[in-house]
Amino acid sequence: MVLLGVIPIPCAQKAGITAFIVQKIVSMLIDRLKSLGIFVECVRQSSFRGAARALDMTPSAVGYHIKQLEAELGQPLFYRSTRKLGLTDAGERLFASAEAMLGLAETGLRQAADPDAALQGRLRITLTSAMAQSPLAVGIAQFHRDHPQVALDLHYSDTWEDLIVGRFDLALRSGGMEDSGLKCRKLWDMPRVLVASPSMLNERAPLHRPEQLCDIPWIRFAKMAGHRVLVGPDGDEVHIPQAGNITVNNIEAMADFARVGIALASPPTHVVAHDLAAGRLVEVLPEWQVAPIPVYAVWPGGAVENPLTQRVLQALVAQLS
After folding, report:
1. Which helix (H) or strand (E) holds 99?
2. Which among 15, 80, 154, 271 would be 20 to 30 A from 143, CA to CA?
3. Burial class (CB in 10 A: 0-12, 13-18, 19+), 32
4. Intervals of the chain under pLDDT 70
5. Which domains can be identified in the chain, with CATH numbers?
6. What is the pLDDT of residue 58?
7. Among residues 91, 124, 99, 40, which one has the least CA distance to residue 299?
8. What pLDDT is stored for residue 139 in this prediction?
9. To which H or E segment does residue 291 belong?
10. Which intervals hold domain HTH lysR-type (predicted)?
11. Which residue, 32, 13, 14, 34, is CA-closest to 24?
12. What's the chain's Rg over C-alpha atoms?
């Protein structure tokens, strides 16, 4: 019987084989990173030709790298038309991570070269219209003053945007939070105030108790529950069902309807501060406080994080503390 043993390989030859394998792996990673960079530029330019011009490449070379990525993933990244490109679901997911990864690499290289260099990059934030004049806006403005080379893309919407599809780095949201797999941090309790126009109050009997509010029409906010919690001087809570048939999805619209005297409203205090000072609105039952709205910072979990996200969060926490 013949025993087959392991053929001994000289150490120098082993080292040569190892170096060859490492070189091949590094080469593959570099090619993949290059393809991802080209893919990100295609999305930014909305065309292969635009990406080719921006990267000083030929359109055919750009197309080759995209085909390589699609072949590796086994599914298309773009919907192609004669006018523009649209991302598939797979393309949306890849773009969110690829763009963040490239941004993180650029930031790391810049900080390694110059640790004292000013922050740079782009930060996309979605927030509600109620936050436009709030301390949160002041905190964002202060962050911009401190870091003017950071481009801020602020998207005001009272609809909860999909952070991945919208390519948002951060969302500032109010109200209850769903278990969505997103990272979350509570920032603030936004104060609210119960208001009505002087003309509306003059048409009714004087209000002394929260229970009297049950029969008065309210302007309801679409994303909030159909009742309001009032907290008394002794900490007692009273839940008031909101009568009325006007529902809005925008805080400014709530304040507008309150000014014209058709219903009660409970907007954030900062939204109607000027109206209260000018007498266009009057605080109702001032000894009772409307329960505040919790405000959260939310950002994508399980993906490469924009390094600027934590920096702007630090600025917001400092502003609100």
Report:
1. helix 89-113
2. 271
3. middle
4. 1-28, 81-83, 107, 110-118, 178-180, 225, 302-306
5. 15-95 (1.10.10.10), 120-188+296-320 (3.40.190.10), 191-292 (3.40.190.290)
6. 94
7. 124
8. 93
9. strand 289-299
10. 31-88
11. 32
12. 28
pLDDT in tens, 287-296: 999 999 999 9
Placement of tokens 């009997």 in the chain:
205
pLDDT given at position 171: 92
d(CA 293, CA 174): 6
155-172: b (≥16 Cβ within 10 Å) or e? eeebeebebbeebbbbbb
Cβ–Cβ < 8 Å for 177, 184: yes
Task: Round to whole Å and give the CA distance between 268 and 127.
Answer: 15
Residue 117 has a pLDDT of 58
- Coil, strand or helix: which one is 198? helix
Beta-carbon-side half-sphere exposure of residue 302 (alpha carbons within 13 Å): 7
The dihedral region occupied by 167, where left means phi > 0, alpha psi between -120 and 50, and beta the remainder, is left
- CA torsion angle 244 284 229 184 (round to 10): 100
Q: Residue 64: its pLDDT value, please? A: 92
Six-digit token string for 41: 């530029």
